[in-house]
């Protein structure tokens, strides 16, 4: 079986010297490599870090990796984690080592990063209609016969654009027809459109129809009974498409793929088992945020949120210093929109009982304090995040801490 990632290329990242590009880290580390820092396992908080600083928690990461891998095995699904969450080759390598079968990407540029680290199998969860991007994919497939990439299509026009751009390519590009939902994002809105697009693919020598794709969280992450019913209905439409197109697919094994980090239990419920006799269907989740989980959006919505020790646990924090106490009940922190996500909720104080963040500026946070919260200028406070994807992209290098706050790794991201 071809290698899923080039472990040597990932390991080589630990030999690149640190410098001023990596915000938050102690200046004393400049010139040292991550491998050397790892060897010393310094306590981050007595090493001279400057705030704010984003960290990952080693034991929580391992727990989440193992928990999700076990869950997928038990539920009969495979996992192609969305790499856009972290864009960190070292984290992806751990996900693949834990049993993931491929990586997911959203853009051709993200696929380029994955290819730089030898990732052999990619779900490119989008319709690619950019001739330059398609030409690059074709070159990559021609240069490496083992490279497997699957894109989405949701229109006959898209099929035509792709076919034209790929004329003369060495082998056909694998595609899934994308099922959409009313009020959602991309994807065919009717069964008739799904079938027309699928048939257009089979008529193209440059494309090969391998399955059905969808994204059940395209309308949000609501977990009320009503919303769960809508998601279940949508996944059922995906299932119907797999059954209806059984004789149209161009491969023996059919791929059906859905699943972010909010509804993956419903994906397993609806899209595994009971397929028509003679068909082989592989169900692949694309969850990305399960790895770090969080203290906001996914803490409220993950299917593994209330599962006690068998559930996911937040593995990412941002530490920030109180820089001002200008009014009663208000602390201002040196952490802002440049440092922490704010698109799906504000950071969550982890060390105070009543306080909450009310607002972020680019470089500051406003922390409303309760009567029991005692903080002074100079204090360091820990915050959980809501939505890891948009915190990861603010940090090119992230320390990983053990339970004693010792730096046991440094993770490089490429956004
Ligand atoms: C198409 C697609 N698949 C999978 C995911 C991963 O979902 P999550 O971020 O909840 O892990 C996303 C996230 O936006 C997505 O857009």
> Could you name the ranges where pLDDT drops below 50 across 5 or more consecutive residues?
none
Give the CATH class of the largest domain. Answer: Alpha Beta
Q: Which shape, going by the Cα principal axes?
A: globular
CATH fold node name of the largest domain:
TIM Barrel
Give a quick precis of the structure.
By secondary structure, this protein is an alpha/beta fold.
Structural overview:
The chain is α/β, with parallel strands linked by helices and about 425 residues long. It is about 30% helix and about 20% strand. The strands form two sheets. Strands 1, 10, 11, 12, 13, 14, 15, 16 and 17 form a nine-stranded mixed sheet that branches. Strands 2-9-8-7-6-5-4-3 form an eight-stranded parallel sheet. A hairpin with a 2-residue loop joins strand 10 and strand 11. The longest helix is centred in the middle third of the chain and has 20 residues. About 45% of the residues are buried. Pyridoxal-5'-phosphate binds next to loops.
Layout of strands and helices, then pairs:
Layout: H1 7-12, H2 34-40, E1 53-57, H3 58-75, E2 78-79, H4 89-97, E3 103-105, H5 108-116, E4 121-124, H6 131-143, E5 148-153, H7 156-165, E6 173-178, H8 191-202, E7 207-213, H9 225-244, E8 253-258, H10 264-271, E9 280-285, H11 297-301, E10 316-327, E11 330-333, E12 348-349, E13 356-360, E14 365-368, E15 380-384, H12 389-392, E16 397-401, E17 407-412
Parallel strand pairs: 1-16, 2-9, 3-4, 4-5, 5-6, 6-7, 7-8, 8-9
Antiparallel strand pairs: 1-10, 10-11, 10-15, 11-14, 12-15, 13-14, 16-17
Helix pairs in contact: 9-10
The protein binds pyridoxal-5'-phosphate.
Pyridoxal-5'-phosphate binds near residues 85, 217, 262 and 389.
